[in-house]
Design brief:
Elements lengths: L1 H4 L20 H20 L2 H13 L6 H26 L5 H24 L12
Helix pairs in contact: 2-3, 2-4, 2-5, 3-4, 4-5
Length: about 130
Amino acid sequence: MAEQFFGRENGRDPLPFNGQGPASGPDLKTWVWAVHILHAATFVTGFTGVAAVIIAYIKRADAAGTIYESHLTYAIRSFWIGIGLSLVALVLCVLLVGFLLFALVGVWWLIRVIRPIIALSENRAINDPTGFF
């Protein structure tokens, strides 16, 4: 009974850990691609980022311990930092400084959209998912 609890049945070890975690594979990678595509589509639609962040929050627990966890954390942070920077730029539009800040936020957003797509296409994790860039 104790052997079954600890993963050893009939004296054999369970399958070796492959470093990808229990929820790795094409299904999780497809969800991460969907998140990145929805973020990129925000440039055109203005609202698909909301769907992206909802999916990222839902799938982040499944991605724990995989390269995809960093992608989902990065997407969530991109959404919230982008909202915050956009609100600051909107308020500063009264002083005409906000228009320049909106342009800078757009460049920042492009970096935040392109960087994870390149990393995911190369099957790499995001180096610093909690960083500003």
